């Protein structure tokens, strides 16, 4: 209880800070419906805190996989008219959660517990259902006295509920925002609506519709063993037998559809599993999996073994296992990325560069290859080549903050301070940190090593961001 009280005290401080600095000025949402723009801004503000969480992961490969599945589902929804962002939390708790504005978090524990890709897609479609039905906007608009403090309490409650429902309740009580509690109850009342919409999305997305009920039923049955320490998913998504029966009835009324898992699903699960436990434990797990043939995919188990061996720094054996893996599968970008990473780890940067160049010819859009190749070029003091690579991708990925961060590193290596800070400004802007972006542009101005045209560009961008910041004085995008 003492730990909860300590965390609550921190939460209250966060609320106070949020009122003055972190949450955006959404206006008086009690006067009308919360607009999609307001909802997105609230989500972006909460995401600033999520990204600061130690469990937040920007693993490019897993994130891209989640967004590929997510957008396949979003594309199957007739109600979606907004941007979505799917992201990974490295957390063993079985959970997923939707935030205002289309941000959907997936815990690594959920990916590892899902026994098929359709089960994972079923949970994701349920979260998409919450978003497209605008449950956050509806529950906030229903509160006639909703104020910024209540929104701050809601943000804390959402984040705390990911792993500890007691802390979530304490945060809600501590803010004395009774409307937050009723809002969360309102959300629970809409779980069935998210089921219905999510089921339709899952079916239209081409996945096995029976997987949705199978996963939820397995979670419900697990409560018999967990008792009070139920999985986080059940605490944040209360389940009932009637909800599961409804899903089962819907699935039975459709033709049976057997949907095989993608190789990407198996590879990303193996990657997460390899990083979940200690290196020695992970190696042992995959060794036994391969020896006893206890796997859904032999290739994925070997991929996980190589990841675990790399963590154990047993690079000689990892290289041998990689040769076996490459012979068993057609060329695959995740395997080529792993191969290049092994070369870097053993000091063979030249070999890594050759793998990256060849792999990018076959998979030019695979972001992990682009990032890692640029980083490898910077390691061998080839910033000009790194810049060529980055700038060839920027026109097609203007919202990619990672490219701007790499661009800044390349300019720093070339001692081009103004361009370095301008690139960092663009990276921060795309992360929602407007004020930090302004600070970087001020540093760019002071660098004084650019020509007239570059200086004019920096000045114009600074005016633009200052105007944006002025329009949103309480905006949380730092």
How are the strands of the biggest sheet laid out side by side? 1-2-4-3
Number of strand segments: 4
- Mean pLDDT, all residues: 83
Low-pLDDT regions: 1-22, 27-31, 144-149, 165-186
How much of the residues is beta strand, in percent?
Answer: under 5%
Q: How does the overall form come out from the CA principal axes?
A: flat
- What structural class do you assign from the helix and strand content? mainly alpha
Helical content class: 55-70%
Radius of gyration: 24 Å
Distance from first to last alpha carbon? 34 Å
Largest sheet: 4 strands, mixed
Count of DSSP-assigned helices: 25
Helix and strand sequence = HHEHEEEHHHHHHHHHHHHHHHHHHHHHH
Task: Describe the structure in your own words.
- With 478 residues, this protein is mainly α.
- The protein has a domain at 2-252.
- It has 25 helices and four strands.
- A four-stranded mixed β-sheet has the order 1-2-4-3, with helices on both faces.
- Helix 18 runs antiparallel to helix 19 (349-362).
In short:
With 478 residues, this protein is mostly helical. The chain has helices at residues 2-22, 36-52, 60-74, 108-113, 117-132, 135-141, 148-160, 165-174, 178-189, 191-204, 210-226, 232-236, 241-252, 263-276, 279-291, 298-311, 315-328, 333-345, 349-362, 367-379, 383-393, 401-413, 417-430, 434-447, 452-471, and strands at 56-57, 85-89, 96-99, 103-107.
């Amino acid at each position: 209880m003492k730990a909860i009280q300590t965390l609550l005290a921190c939460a209250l401080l966060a609320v106070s800070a949020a009122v003055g600095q972190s949450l955006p000025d959404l206006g008086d949402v009690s006067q009308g419906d919360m607009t999609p723009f307001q909802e997105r801004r609230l989500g972006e503000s909460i995401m600033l805190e999520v990204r600061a969480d130690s469990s937040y992961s920007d693993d490019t490969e897993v994130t891209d996989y989640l967004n590929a599945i997510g957008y396949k589902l979003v594309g199957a929804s007739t109600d979606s008219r907004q941007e979505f962002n799917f992201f990974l939390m490295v957390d063993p708790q079985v959970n997923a959660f939707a935030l205002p504005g289309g941000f959907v978090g997936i815990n690594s524990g959920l990916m590892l517990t899902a026994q098929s890709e359709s089960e994972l897609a079923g949970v994701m479609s349920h979260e998409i259902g919450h978003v497209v039905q605008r449950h956050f906007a509806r529950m906030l608009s229903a509160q006639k006295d909703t104020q910024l403090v209540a929104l701050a309490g809601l943000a804390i409650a959402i984040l705390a509920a990911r792993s500890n429902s007691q802390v979530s309740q304490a945060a809600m009580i501590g803010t004395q925002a009774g409307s937050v509690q009723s809002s969360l109850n309102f959300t629970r009342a809409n779980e069935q609506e998210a089921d219905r919409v999510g089921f339709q999305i899952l079916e239209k997305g081409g996945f096995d519709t029976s997987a949705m009920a199978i996963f939820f039923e397995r979670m419900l049955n697990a409560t018999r063993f967990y008792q009070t320490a139920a999985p986080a998913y059940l605490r944040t998504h209360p389940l009932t037998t009637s909800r599961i029966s409804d899903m089962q009835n819907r699935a039975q009324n459709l033709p049976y559809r057997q949907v095989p898992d993608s190789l990407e699903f198996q590879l990303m699960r193996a990657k997460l599993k390899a990083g979940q436990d200690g290196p020695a434990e992970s190696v042992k797990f995959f060794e036994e999996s391969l020896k006893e043939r206890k796997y859904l995919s032999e290739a994925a188990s070997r991929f996980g073994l190589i990841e675990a061996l790399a963590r154990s720094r047993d690079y000689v054996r990892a290289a041998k296992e990689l040769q076996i893996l490459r012979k068993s599968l057609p060329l695959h970008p995740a395997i080529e990325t792993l191969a290049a990473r092994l070369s870097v780890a053993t000091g063979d940067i030249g070999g890594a560069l050759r793998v990256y160049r060849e792999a990018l010819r076959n998979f030019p859009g695979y972001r992990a290859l682009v990032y890692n190749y640029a980083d490898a070029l910077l390691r061998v003091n080839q910033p000009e080549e790194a810049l060529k690579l980055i700038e060839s991708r920027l026109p097609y990925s203007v919202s990619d903050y990672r490219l701007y961060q790499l661009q800044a590193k390349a300019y720093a290596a070339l001692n081009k301070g103004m361009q370095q800070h301008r690139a960092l400004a663009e990276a921060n802007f795309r992360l929602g940190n407007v004020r930090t972006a302004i600070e970087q542009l001020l540093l760019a101005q002071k660098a004084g090593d650019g020509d007239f045209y570059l200086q004019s560009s920096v000045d114009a961008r600074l005016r633009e961001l200052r105007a944006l910041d002025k329009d949103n004085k309480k905006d949380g995008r730092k």
